[in-house]
Amino acid sequence: MKTDQIVNLSRRRFVAGSAVSLAGLTLGIIPTVAAEQRQAGPGIAGQAPETAGDFSPNAFLRIDGDGIVTVISKHLEMGQGTYTGMATLVAEELDADWEKVRVEGAPADAGRYNNLFWGKAQGTGGSTAIANSWKQMRKAGAAARQMLVQAAAKQWQVEAGEIKVKSGVVSHAPSGRKAGFGELAERAAEQPVPESVTLKDPKSFSLIGQRIPRKDSPEKINGQAIFTQDVKLPGMLTAVVLHPPRLGATVSKIDTKGALAVKGVREVIQIPSGVAVVADDFWQAKLGRDALSVSWDESKAFSKSSAQILDDYRQLAEKPGLVARTEGDGATALASTDDAIEAEYSVPFLSHSAMEPMNCVVRIDEAGCEVWNGEQMQTSDQYQIAGLLGLEPHQVHIHMLYAGGSFGRRANPAADYLLETVHIAKALKPGTPLKMVWTREDDTHAGYYRPLYLHRMRAALNDQGEPHVWDQRIVGQSILKGTPFESVMVKDGVDMTSVEGAANLPYEIKHVQVDLHSPELPVPVLWWRSVGSTHTAFAVECFIDELAVKAGQDPLAYRRKLLRNHPRHLGVLNLVAEKAGWGEPMGRNRGQGIAVHESFNSYVAQVAEVSVRRSVISVDRVVIAVDCGVAVNPDVIVAQMEGGMGFGLSATLLSELTFREGRVEQSNFTDYRILRIDQMPEVEVHIVASAEAPTGVGEPATPVIAPAVANAVFAATGKRLRQLPLRLG
Amino acid sequence: MLNLSINGKPHALDLDPQTPLLWAIRDHVGLTGTKYSCGIAQCGSCTVYLDGAPVRACITPVSDAVGKEVTTIEGLSSPAGQAVQAAWRELEVVQCGYCQSGQIMSAASLLQRNRKPTDADIDQAMQGNLCRCATYARIRQAIKVAADKLNGVQS
Ligand code: FES
Ligand code: FES
Prior knowledge:
The complex is a heterodimer of chains A (729) and B (155). Chain A is built from 20 helices and 31 strands.
C-alpha cells in the first residue's frame, strides 16, 4: 500500500536538490519545507532548521546530534492530546527516551501528511487522529529504529540481531558497546530504508497504555505556548471586521472618517463579509471599528426567528422525508397499533465558542501565501485560499499552531475566517503580515452553528413491553450539502451527519423507520463536537427511556434486553451501572439517569445523578464507561471523557443560540452561557479493557450527557423534558 | 509615556491611558501568555496581578497599572504559583491550554489567601474562569494537591 511506504526523506531531499548546510552528511530540503523553515515564528511548526547530521528517515520524525527526537505531527493539537498521542506511537516503536521526544506540527502537504481515513486530504477531525495513525506512526518509529540498529551494527562490526534498543540507547551486550540515538543519527541516515518492519507485540509496549506526561503541558502552563492569537511578525498589522447585523445584509454606505481618525488605524477595506479596519494593533483596530459608520441594506436579510423555524420544522415533520433506514414494515407498521407513543424532541442552534475566538494570520507575496492558524483542514483550506488568489494549492504554506479549542469550528469546508483574512491581506501592500482577530461578539455572531433540529419520535410496544415499531423523523439543515464532502457523505439526498446515531439505532426492533427532512435556511451550519450525535443521542436515548417507563421496566434492564446482541454497548452499560451503583435509592428530589451511545466507533455509557431544587437542575455526579479499543494513553482518554462530557453539559443545561427576526440574540458569555466550575459534577471514568484497534475519544463523551441528565431529571421529578437546554418550570 | 513595571522589569509605553492593560501587555510588551477571550470580565483568561491582587486585564485601563507591580503568568514565581504549576503538571489539567494562564493565576491567588480551600472556596474563587474544554474536575483536584504541597513546604 502506498500509504505504508517508508521513504528516507533525507535522500529524497538530496535528490530534490537545493542543498543546504553541507558538513558531514549532505542534506537537501525540498522547496516547500524550506519555505516553512524560513518563515516559522516562535514555537511554530517547522521552526528548527535541519542541520547536518540530522536523521530524517521519513516524514514523521527527525533525530538530531543531541539525540533529540522530533516527532512531526500531521494532526492539530486542540486540546485532545494528539501531539502526545502521535509521539507515543512513534516513540514506542523507536524505543525512544520519552524525555527526549518533542513534537512539531507538520506543514500542509497532503502527499505526506494526509489523514489515512480521508483519502488524499490532510486534516484533523471525526475523532480519527489516533485511529488512522495507529499503524502509520508506529511503522515510522520502527523503521527509524531498524536504521539506527543497522548503523550501530556497521560501526561496531557486530550482528544487528544482537543489538538492543531501550529508552534512547542502542547497546550490544557481548561487546559492551553503547551509543545514544544522537551519536548514531548521522550514520543511520545512510542506511537503506527497510522494505518492511515488524511492529511490537502489544505485550511489550512500554509507552502505549501508560500514563505518560503530555508534551504540550509545560508550555501551556508557563504562558509560552503560541496560539494564532499570539503570532507576531515584523511589520504585522491587525484587522477587526465589522460584519453585517443580519445574515444577507449588504453594505450600502461606508463613512470611514471616524475610523481613520483613530490613532494607529491604517486602512478601512470593504470585503465580501463586511468592512475591515486595519491598524497597528488590536485595540486601535477595535476603536477604529467602533468609530466606523456603515449603513446596511437589510432588504434581503434573513428575518426569521428561532421559534418560527421550529414551527416550520414541526409542520414539515407531518410529511414523510427521505428514508435513511427502513426495516420490516417500517413506519406503516404503526397503522396496525392503537396506542402509539409519540414525542417531539428539539435542540437549538449552538455556537462552538472556543475560548480562543477565531483568528488567522496571513502574508501574501509573489511566492505565494503563508498562513498561521490553528489549522484543522489543510488540504481544503489550501484549495480555498489558492482559488481566491489564483495560486496553486501548494503555494499556500500553512503553519499549524496550537488551537485554543475548536470543537469543529476550525474545520470549515467554506474556510470562512481564513478567506476573510486573505481578502484583507490581499488589499494590503504585498508581503505585509496581517492578523485578523474576531472579538467574542464576532465569534458568537458569525455563524457556522450546530443546526437547530427537531425529532418526531413514534413507537409501539408489544405484549412484553418491548418496542416492535420505531419511527423517527428528523428535521434539520444539512451540514454537508454544497461542500466537497457532499459526494461522499450525502447518499440519496440523506446527509449521513444528520442521521448518524439514529439510522444506526442498535436496539433490536422489528419495524424501524428513520427518515429525514433537510430544509434550507441561510444560517451557516457546521459540525459541532460529535456532530449528528449531539441531537440524535438526545432523542433516541430519552425516547427509549420513555418506552421503558411506559413498559414499567427499569431503564437499564430494558436497554440490556434490546441490546443483547451488541456486546460493546453491553460492556459499557454493565460497567457504568456497576460503578455508579445503578438503582440505589437517591432520596427526595434526586434521581439517576442512564444513556449509552456509539459514535466514531467508540462506545460510551453514562450515569448522571441530579438534584432538583426550586426548578434548578444540578448535576452532582457523572460516571462514565468507555470502550475505545486499545487505550493508547489512559489518562488522555479520561481527560477527554471528563471534558467531552462537560462540553455536552453546557448544551444540556445552559447554551442556546437564538434568532429574533434574523438577529442573533446572544453576544458574549453573559448570554451565551457555558459551564462554570461550580456547575461541574464530580466525574468518574472507567475504561473497558480491549485489544481492538483504538478508536476516537475526542467526541464520544459529548452526546451522552444530555439524555443521561434528562432521564435523571425525569427520575427525580417525574417531568419529561424534551427540549435542550433543559428547563424546569 | 506610561511607566510600568511588569514582572520586575520597567517598560515605558506610549499608549492612550484608556487602552486595556491586556492589549498593552500582549501587543506592546510582547508577553502573550495572558489571553483574550471575552473582553468584558466574563471569562478570566486575562487574569494578571496588580500589586499581587488579581484583576481582569481586559477591563483594566493601562493607566491603573502605573506605579504598581504587574505580574503575568510569565512572571509568576511565588511559592503558591509554583505549587499550582507543579500540581497542574502532575494532574495533567491542561487540554487546549488557552484558558490555563488565567486559571493558574486565579488558583495561585486563591492559595495565597487561603491555604486550605474547601470545594466551596474553590468554586467561588474559580467560577469567573471559564474553560471550554471543561477541565474543571482536574482544576479542583489540582488546587487541593497544590495546597498540600504548599502546606508541606511550610510545615
Ligand atoms: S478576556 Fe478578560 S475576562 Fe475574559
Ligand atoms: S483548556 Fe481549553 S479552554 Fe481551558
